[in-house]
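Bumping my old thread because nobody answered last time. Still need a sequence for this structure:
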């Protein structure tokens, strides 16, 4: 009998998750750790990383790293080499998480968002490419980027209490770019046996949000509800596992159908 662990088990694998203490980052890290991977939790706040590692249990490594810093990312790569010399799963989840509009956005906001999305991706690949190639010798290493439905469509202003309460334009712009960057990376890294795929979440609001807003968001999906974070975690687990070994350059949209109408 085939068990879930036979299908999606990651025992002996090494996973790295940036933005690990974020709302979705936590559930992604939990899924990978729960599948048996040694999971490196990457973020800027060591205290929050330590707390998350304690909560998740398993083999989790809290690794403070500012992915916008060349030195920090290089140091992370050195630590990974010293710890075992391979990376099987790299999840790039770090992003700018505030609200805004064209009216409130500053030019620097676009640069900050692009640094977290694009430049950080380049830094991370520079620090881990050799480790991913090592993993390719006996497996199917996976790089997973995280975009957003607002990289595919624009927010609907009437859903929010004010024009400045939705996701800002620089957020959507870089999330659209992440989808295309994923394709470029999949083409370049494919010959080395490294897969690169994107996950595009839809409405996954946090707990304790405004019930009226949650209702409006739910009404925008054919399924009539918002997402449960576990529904993102299982998608990440599939893309991380060898069971998706012939999937690369894909954008897996998990949005309850938001973007289909």
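Sorry it took so long. Here it is:
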């Amino acid at each position: 009998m085939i068990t879930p662990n036979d299908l999606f088990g990651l025992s002996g694998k090494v996973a790295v998750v940036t933005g690990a203490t974020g709302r979705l980052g936590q559930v992604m890290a939990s899924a990978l750790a729960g599948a048996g991977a040694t999971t490196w939790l990457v973020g800027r706040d060591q205290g929050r990383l330590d707390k998350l590692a304690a909560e998740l249990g398993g083999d989790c490594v809290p690794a403070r790293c500012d992915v916008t810093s060349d030195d920090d990312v290089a140091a992370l790569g050195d630590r990974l080499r010293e710890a075992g010399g391979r990376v099987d799963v790299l999840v790039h989840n770090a992003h700018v998480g505030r609200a805004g509009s064209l009216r409130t956005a500053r030019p620097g906001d676009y640069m900050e968002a692009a640094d977290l999305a694009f430049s950080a991706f380049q830094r991370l690949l520079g620090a881990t490419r050799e480790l991913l190639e090592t993993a390719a010798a006996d497996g199917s290493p996976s790089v997973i980027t995280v975009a957003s439905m607002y990289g595919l469509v624009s927010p609907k202003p009437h859903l929010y209490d004010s024009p400045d309460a939705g996701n800002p334009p620089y957020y959507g712009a870089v999330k659209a770019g992440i989808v295309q960057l994923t394709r470029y990376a999949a083409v370049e890294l494919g010959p080395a046996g490294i897969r690169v795929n994107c996950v595009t979440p839809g409405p996954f609001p946090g707990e304790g949000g405004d019930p009226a807003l949650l209702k409006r968001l739910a009404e925008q999906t054919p399924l009539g509800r918002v997402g449960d974070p576990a529904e993102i975690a299982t998608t990440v687990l599939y893309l991380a596992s060898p069971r998706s070994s012939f999937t690369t350059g894909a954008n897996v949209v998990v949005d309850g159908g938001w973007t289909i109408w």
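The first helix runs from residue 4 to 8. Let me know if any region looks off to you.
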